[in-house]
Design brief:
Strand content: under 5%
Shape: flat
Order of helices and strands: HHEHHEEEHHHHHHHHHHHHHHHHHHHH
Strand order of the largest sheet: 1-2-4-3
Helix content: 55-70%
Distance between the termini: 24 Å
Number of helices: 24
Number of domains: 3
Largest sheet: 4 strands, mixed
Amino acid sequence: MPLWHSAPVQAQLALPSMGDGADITTSEERQLGDRIIRSLYRDPDYVDDPQLQAYVMRIWAPLVQAAKQRGDMSEELSERFAWQILLGRDQSINAFALPGGYLGVHLGLIAAVSSSDELATVLAHELTHVTQRHIARMIGEEKKSMPLMVASLLLGALAASKSPDAANALIVGGQAAAIQNQLGFSRDMEREADRIGYSLLAPAGFAPQGAVSMFEKLQQASRLNDNGSWPYLRSHPLTTERMADMQARAPQGRLQPPKPSMEHTMMAARARVLGRPSADKLREWAKQPQQPEFAQRSVLEQAGQWYASALSYAQLRDADRARQSWEALHALLNAQGDVRARQQAKWLRMEIELAAGKPNVALQWAATGNDAAGNTRPELLLSSRAWLAAGQASKVSDRLQTWVLDDPRDAAAWHLLAQAWQAQGHVLRGLRAEAEAYVAHYDYPAAIDRLKAGQDAARQASTTSDYMDASIIDTRLREVQSLWREQSREQ
């Protein structure tokens, strides 16, 4: 959603809460969000990158917790909404809120901001749009029925995805561009998102000065004439009052921009490389450390460029040069003692070895470093890929089974679990896991297809365990068919 809207300083300071969005219920809003989000899951520009996702969620989670503790998020909202972030490969600088607690973040935004504090500023703003029920209130003010609203959103999104003229307005591929235009917030709603979003930063552990430096970036982009990479600047021009308000809110005497972390610099580099640049651009990034001016750059800049170089070479399928760049990055990080940055570097090395067809080497790297990292999603998924590639599927299934019990909407984990079960000859379990991966993305017809395939396979089964798995599949099929009928009635 476009982020920054002009507002007088005094109006922002005194603005009251705008209400609870009672025009539609939380359940209806969640259903609306689910309908929109399942189309975005199918968009080719949707990306589930475990490393970037984990980094963004580590910023997002304390903001959500701060909203709960401050009373900005009701218990009902906390339980009913998704609170999920989707990443899109688009290199334009934007983020947007959708109904039901979903947020979208462009890789271009992660690449452009200088610190986690600046990124937290954007996420806090979008979070406030959700907690204050701005979308529900907007729908009520438009006085449109829910079916008509949904139809308008989805038809507009599908049209945008097929229009070459919409290319510069992408959010997550073409589909969300029209959705963003349909869900434009009012000036008062933008003020409230500024005011409450800012108040979440310090309780969540982020420097409020990140809001000041983020606004300075926006102001600079406005002065340089928006070239399409800052979509919300076209409809939300900045003002001097806006800047003054952020500066007035920040603690006096501490207005210097927050210091970027090594991890953020590396994740910004990752976001750039994963944005599907041309092969020529990858080669340019890969060779940046060879430039004469490289030695004069700061340690942070060097770390980011070594990371981009290693990942770019890996994308170009040049494993030897990727390892060389990684070794230089590793040496730099060892001298700095940044635990999180070293963890990110380890995961990058595992990626390089997996891309080079060396799963056993990737597993050797998985065994190094902090043991607690083994409980993280990036480590779990990378290690699972390595075990599967090494022909040791039995090492995967138990860990993944435990993981999806806690997070049943992790489609990537379900897909890997399906591969693990199939490799061990557990056909029914594999088909059920495939179905659950589709359910996680609200693709109920595909899930039903896999579950029916499981029923067909079960007719040929003979062991007790197969009978038990067949019973689970039968039960799950009835549940998913019910979900599909409900989804069909909403369309």
